[in-house]
């Protein structure tokens, strides 16, 4: 079964094609980041308009990358939440139009579940649902979410922990803004941290009584340290005249900040894996592209860790196609009443 997956929940217009839920045939992503960078973050209205402009060429490019025509596509999967309402509507309505005109089954996909299904697209490993097999512990770390969930079967997630304030990706983005490093924050903090010889110590919120996370404390600590060291985003960006802050200082702060976030993510995930007796750990979401998180989790975990290649960690249509394939195989379908759900949670019942 060949499924076309469409993704437009935030600032990437994307389409992917996946065969039998595992074989990646196309993955086309048109990022709007260059536009939103000008505003220091995603502007919802701008995102919707760019999705409208780009969705047709992106889907066409996916078909041509896969080398197939419409007659070889068996179903359409589309992100219907969570995300920006206006952005989601573009993808959902486009998918409904395709499904109606081509007479193809349609399935709405939870974007958060989609991130986890990127693990089914990792080449050269067995089907994670079979080996290591369910239950799997999922750490979903994206710009808007930090969730720990036990996955008991396809499409079945039980949330055991979540962030109480900022998501991990949001913490990276806000941290980068404090340090004047630009947007999106994860990649730029990672780059600055990699070349820093030392790390400035930063606090960790363990919340030992639960599997929840909290990143607002470390963000405030970074802000305070940056101010003490005479750094503010304005003078780093060259907007304020005067001496430019020492890049070694910025690097040490970036490295300490990244270590604090990653350390908590790894230790709490490993603890939960032991406590819940899961067979493996699945990592997903944009922050899973982070090298120290990937390497650290592989090093510390007592069970196999499945982590998609970076291009499949950040938003893409292939993960939506992969998740949609499994839901369709369970016999689930959406119809023309499919609505967008901007606040959808990972454990929202499917169907
Ligand atoms: O999953 P994603 O592409 O979009 C959402 O669904 O939110 O995640 C985007 C987030 C951003 O906050 C970005 O800063 C973060 O993922 N990110 C990273 C890295 N690459 C992207 N965070 C840490 N290290 C990275 N290399
Ligand atoms: Zn995402």
Description:
The protein has 351 residues and is an alpha/beta fold. The protein folds into 2 domains: 2-118 and 311-349, ATPase, nucleotide binding domain (Nucleotidyltransferase, domain 5); 134-307, ATPase, nucleotide binding domain (Nucleotidyltransferase, domain 5). It contains 13 helices and 10 strands. The protein has a 5-stranded mixed beta sheet, with helices on both faces. Strand 9 (280-284), helix 11 (291-300) and strand 10 form a beta-alpha-beta unit. The longest helix has 30 residues, at 247-276. The two termini are 20 Å apart. The relative contact order is 0.19. Residues 235-240 have low confidence and may be disordered. The site of 5'-O-[(R)-(carboxyoxy)(hydroxy)phosphoryl]adenosine has 19 residues, from helix 6 and helix 7. 5'-O-[(R)-(carboxyoxy)(hydroxy)phosphoryl]adenosine (KG4) binds at residues 10, 142-144, 169, 172-173, 184-187, 190, 285-287, 289-290, 314-315.
